UniProtKB/TrEMBL annotation:
The organism of origin for this protein: Tachuris rubrigastra
Gene assigned in the entry: Arsi
Cofactor: Ca(2+)
Record's keyword annotation contains Oxidoreductase: no
Keywords assigned by UniProt, alphabetized: Calcium, Glycoprotein, Hydrolase, Metal-binding
Protein name: ARSI Arylsulfatase
Amino acid sequence: MAVYALTGFSLVSLLSFGYLSWDWMKPSLVADVATDPMEKSLPPAFARPPHIIFILTDDQGYHDVGYHGSDIQTPTLDRLAAEGVKLENYYIQPICTPSRSQLITGRYQIHTGLQHSIIRPRQPNCLPLDQVTLPQKLQEAGYSTHMVGKWHLGFYKKECLPTRRGFDTFLGSLTGNVDYYTYDNCDGPGICGYDLHEGEDVAWDQSGKYSTFLYAQRVSKILASHSPKEPIFIYVAFQAVHTPLQSPKEYIYRYRSMGNVARRKYAAMVTCMDEAVKNITWALKKYGYYDNSVIVFSTDNGGQTFSGGSNWPLRGRKGTYWEGGVRGIGFVHSPLIKRKRRTSWALVHITDWYPTLVSLARGNLSNVPGLDGYDVWPAISEGKESPRTEILHNIDPLYNHAKYGSLEDGFGIWNTAVQASIRVGEWKLLTGDPGYSDWIPPQTLTNFPGSWWNLERLTDGLRKSVWLFNITADPYERYDLSEQRPDVVRTLLTRLVHYNRTAIPVRYPAENPRAHPDFNGGAWGPWASEDDGEEWEDIREPLKSRNKKKKCKICKLRSFFRKLNTRLMSNRI
């Protein structure tokens, strides 16, 4: 059966997609910049700390950029990447909060207590307040720091907000996903609120503006009001292309030939985001920043395949530790790069941006010991070897334990029922339940035949709890070598044991009814006082007993909320 699956894989891989022509110089529908200020110039000497623009997109699949062979038009990203350095051995985390926390702290999530799931709107949880953040280090180095877009690192009290964690200004959302026009976010039936904030205030007046447009225009305004003689850091965390799938009609029309409706809307959102990046680049040139700037582009996790995204030809999707969940789109574009127009296969992880950018800014890293990231600028700019040789993708003790895992299967040193993944050199090990493991081709056709790719998943063996791949030779994770190379399995398990000894307790508190937006004027925002302690607990109980207690707590909360909602509605009536 596995033979048939691989045959199907090769047949589908022969499909080709047409590309529409695109004019880089065509005026954008997003821009508030009317003219094209782009002009050729020679790279200056690296005499001053560079302006840093970090662009993070949400749920953009590995396949969903033009230079990865996509049917989606991304001319701006294609050009910026082609003129800079493409990072083709670049890793992120499989979901939102973990990637953002590791970018901002330079630490693996086992070292911040955020190794399980995401921070949910009603949880009294946020990025640990004892962590010195990337923008704080850049402020110390004399930078003006600004954030535009999605935070998703907690907000239950004011100390957790972006403006308290190193950003001079903030415009964006605090939760994980909002409507692109109304900025409403529901965290369950009847638990809805507005989520767009300017600084620490609710930005009610911005409702109705498409977020991708709004965020690009805000970046342009920041650049227009700042002096290019002073270093600036702008973190642009687009909401795009996370659900809900919403885009202006003129972008959807370009993809009217796509039979799959979700893919059509998703493609429109990607292209709209691409134009927003073009306008940011134009603004950098127009206002005099570009020649001394570094633009970093990164996705936050793999694409969500049932919402139009594609990670083809990688295995898996968002939320999984297969390559489709953790291998990201990444590139660096800058006149300051010494060896441009090339592809780098240096191993890079999202934690590396912290020390890399602070070093570029001539900041001080001596007072932030224990970082998990490395300074990879020499590898990016000069083509030198990456200082990174391994990546801990994660260890999550709370995720559902694999039914067939055991300590015995882990040579007596590791319980293979625990969800974990690590890469060391060319080897990658997964234990526990890594998540949905199919290979899913782009959903460009209506009712794309899907029976062939399920065969491989079924023959992969549902009774397994250990997988080993040579990622260099087998980037699509088709050939499990765990039985052929038990020596490598044991070596990587030993590394997991080492990392696990350094892990801090998981921070995943129960939801708090005080977070309901109705208590905050109809908007999501801080609800705990500054005197309230950090509400988290040391989770070390056996998983089964904890699940029972957690379920009981949730039931009580739901019952309380139903009664509370009834009272609130009756008062309104």
